[in-house]
Amino acid sequence: MTLDPAPQSARLDGYAPVARAIDFLVAHFEDAPSLEDTAAVVGLSPAHFQRVFKEGAGVSPKRFLQFVAAGEARRTIAAGGNVLDAAFAAGLSGPSRLHDLFLAAEAMTPGAYRRKGAGETIRHGEVDGPFGRALIGATDRGICWLSFTGPDGLARSMAEMQGDWPAARFVEDAGFIVPLAERAFEFARGAALDKPLGLHVEGTNFQLKVWEALLRIPSGRCVTYGDLAAAVGAPKAARAVGAAVGANMISLLIPCHRVILSSGVVHNYRWGAARKKAILAMEGALAATP
After folding, report:
1. Catalytic residues
2. Which domain holds residue 273?
3. Stronger pLDDT, 84 or 78, i.e. the higher one
């Protein structure tokens, strides 16, 4: 299947230099790149780059770099478990901004997997986002897929989406996807939405329970696999919880990136540890910004 690049809005086009800058800052944070150095990488003047980055990421390049260098993920673990407990106790009014998401969830048995997506039409398109190019798919009930593609990964991401929804019909539809993408990335950088953003997931009861728990982890916090296992009532099933986390196919919005090892090491992200570190750094910087 050959896919043409989706025509985008100016807002989505603006994410391309932000994504390149984020990649550069994560790769070279130990060198403490200056604003001028980073702006040169993306081909913009320092002043213009500063405005573009702040608009796309929600924080300044300097603030983002501080959080990359500080390894903030380690510092959030201790509070993360307590915050997750509090979020469960508070329900939809908790600090996880669940009120901005509407989750259409359907439980299925493992044997029903080959029929997943039967009767559904999934519209899809590839767009620019703050952490690189992304493939987004959506049914009439909400976003059912969000994966990062990279320069050569669109065909692979498309095949993975089709494999995850084997019985669905797929239609490329940029006009449908672009407005969804704009709202999804606005949500990811902490903006309030005028109406809930729909997500559509299908999985086993255990997977759904884990994914709901992920949605309750506040932005700017991390939890361990053990924290998450305890939160879903399976304290001895951290490995099974890890498998359910890895099966999440709506990256960024269902925040599997907020689960890390108890040592604080950032790894095991389907779309690369560097990207996971970048997302956590941006969320940490946003959470710490008044």
Report:
1. 256
2. 10-287
3. 84
